[in-house]
Amino acid sequence: MRRSIRGLAACAALAAGAAHATVAVHDATGRTVTLAHPAARIVALSPHAVELLYAAGAGARVVAAVDYSDFPPEAARLPRVGGVMGFSLEALVRQRPELVVAWRDGLGVRDEARLRALGIPLYISRPLKLDDVAAEIAALGRLAGSAATADAAAARYRARLAGLRQRYAGRAPVSVFYQVSAAPIFTVSDTSFVGQMVESCGGRNVFGKLPLPAPQVSVETVLVARPQVMLANDAATLAAWSRWKTLPAVAAGTRYVLPGDLVGRPGPRLVDGMGAVCAALEKARGRLGLTPR
């Protein structure tokens, strides 16, 4: 089995060696990714990476992905090499990739070492900040030979982001709790892109100062924080707080469900997710009797 995997990897390396113009970019870890020529066969190991690649104009070069890669719609038809529990190295190598794009938090140390040992070029993605999305779109466009399309997409994203920031600058602040999961309770800090959305929309994240991007909290700490607004990706999560009638967000009716893929997937649609966050906070201001400054 190991010999067959190495044989397939060698074929991919030979294909990549049919050089044209060398391209090089830095990935999210600061590591330089160098290709002998733009990648013609790309495997994406996370749904957000698929969206970044399609936005970069490289959709036709993506030959495989993982479960839940469902946007744009044509991505749902891509062969799968894995899912949330990992990927099959043999299935990946069978696709003869000239580039693999992986999510930093979803790629184990052992799997990364195996990919590098086989000589498969690897781009590590980790858009932790809102502005990182545009930078990664541009970088992936260079690796795929679609820089002009990628640069245009990155510019559109930046322009929409700037427009939202300008529109909601100076709004009356409201305290916000964003709940990622119900049991255990995970939230976001200001170091995450969701936390930055809340801040850009005029919200004050009640757990914003915690050091981790997605910290775990308790029911008691939420009750002590007394958020004016509660946000989550499903109604059941928010409904569970109904027993605490004096919690400001419960008493005021300012609990809002957000579209999970838009808010939680760090790709080009993140700006749409930010629009949803800003709209929710604006509704909350209305219910709380607050007006724009």
Automatic annotation (TrEMBL):
<feature type="signal peptide">
    <location>
        <begin position="1"/>
        <end position="21"/>
    </location>
</feature>
<keyword id="KW-0732">Signal</keyword>
<feature type="domain" description="Fe/B12 periplasmic-binding">
    <location>
        <begin position="41"/>
        <end position="285"/>
    </location>
</feature>
<dbReference type="InterPro" id="IPR054828">
    <property type="entry name" value="Vit_B12_bind_prot"/>
</dbReference>
<protein>
    <submittedName>
        <fullName>Cobalamin-binding protein</fullName>
    </submittedName>
</protein>
<dbReference type="GO" id="GO:0071281">
    <property type="term" value="P:cellular response to iron ion"/>
</dbReference>
<dbReference type="InterPro" id="IPR002491">
    <property type="entry name" value="ABC_transptr_periplasmic_BD"/>
</dbReference>
<dbReference type="Pfam" id="PF01497">
    <property type="entry name" value="Peripla_BP_2"/>
</dbReference>
<dbReference type="InterPro" id="IPR050902">
    <property type="entry name" value="ABC_Transporter_SBP"/>
</dbReference>
